[in-house]
Queue: 4 jobs
Job 1
Amino acid sequence: MSTNKRYRLIYVEVCLILIILLAAALFISSCREDKESRHLIIQDPRNETIFYSIPVEADDILTLSYKHSVSRSMVEGTFSLTRNGKIKPETTSYTAYGPGLPVERYVEWKIENGVITVYHEEEPRESIRLWVTDITGETIYLRGQQYPLFKLSDTYLLLEIFLD
């Protein structure tokens, strides 16, 4: 075999090895990105005091429950945590309508065992802001754990919930 043919063969082999290594690196990088966990941050937005930093993964479901301040009935909202770091409203369930709750005639909904469940068609959001107090008992359920937000302060407390 001539020297030129040998060099061309070596050149092609080196190029193939580099392409394979680059493809492997890209594949490993994309796998890490998919499995990369985020943290659900619960903080006071006024002074940025962080109360919770909870490890989560994309597609986890967060449930927020509270007692409606007017109807005094329990309300439960579910939210999915998206791959791009946003929080998507999924459902709101309640047994008695109260101000601020979604009206079922404007969206998809069902009634089962006396519970009205409204299915949201909203776009994912960057964060959720809410006031918490022991009067309404806001609590988050996530990955089998309970986080009683209303116990974070003796008075009304503004919280912001977002993914980092």
Job 2
Amino acid sequence: MRWNKFTLCAVLGLSVMSAPAWAANCKSNSSGHKAEKTIVETAVGAKGFKTLVAAVKAAGLVETLSSKGPFTVFAPTDEAFAKLPEGTLETLLKPENKDQLVAILTYHVVPGKVTADQVVKLKEAKTAQGGKVKIKVEGKHVHVNDSRVVKTDILCKNGVIHVIDAVLLPEAK
């Protein structure tokens, strides 16, 4: 039996692109058309990623995440960023903390295109930051470290986005 992303998401209990911006992009991908937008363009055009986009801009990663890739991005929502302790985001967005912001954001990026059907087979993945994220399937839910994957397989011209409900923080070295 061939598993497509919709079947996989249904089995895992994950929602598949409920917001109109995601639905439009997902629809074109599910019909076999090539994705036309980069990861950054997709995030900019979607609701719920204003904070992530602002952080990517502040970190100077727009060009990198718009390049050929491919990349897999575990993308925290605005609500995920809001869960950070008060003042954390504001501190990270300051120019003097750019290195720390880059480390956190690149910890959300896995080199290569890793779709949901591949993610569920992994126990961990090495990130662009150099650390590893732990991947665990518990019942109908997929977790990356302490975050839960809430949307999967948002296909982009240069990779794939999986939406998560918490910001991933790399372990201190």
Job 3
Amino acid sequence: MKEEKKQEIFTKFYENVNMAPSELEKWLETDKSKSVGQDSGNRESIGHKSGKKIIEIKNTKKSELTNENYEHMKKVNSYIARHTAQKPDGDIEESNWRYSLKNWGHDPLK
């Protein structure tokens, strides 16, 4: 992956992921977090697994990020873009839509 592409992915990731690692870690422990998302095959949602990877990425120095990290960051950027475009009408504070986004590190109420 070219350096300029990595920089683009990195910048977008840090714009999209607006939850701190400690905040995301706390969120992932909640029943609300575990109640949403598509099962990844082992009774844990894809988004919940992604949240764990996001914490690892955000706790890694930029110079130590791998191509695999950048691929996941790209996936996170795509998910957040698609999901935010599907914002439901009405109050979103206690919505599955918001909970799913938070699993991916993005709190739309921030």
Job 4
Amino acid sequence: MIETYLPLIIMLVFGFGIAVVFMLLSEWLGARRFTPGKVSTYESGMPPRGTARERFSVKFYMIAVSFIVFDVEVVFMYPWAVQLGTLGISAFIAMMFFIAILFAGYFWELRKGGLDWD
């Protein structure tokens, strides 16, 4: 049994070893010149303004959580859609229940104004 996985194990060990060697080499051989440009905060090529302790609107977090929920929904729905023919009617009913709960949450968030960008 182990001989079937031996090439994979060797490849993983070799890859991990190469990564460790390259990290150590870059640490030992890399230049250490700290300039104000290197140690400053870099955000999309624009100079930083204000402090890093600024507060964000709660709506930003609601949209972020909605995006995560949408991703989780896709993670659950894709395998279900691929295997729908073999799963039967009980899996179809369970997924319709899942989608109904999900839409109820989206409509609640829409009513609360969580999807307004302004």
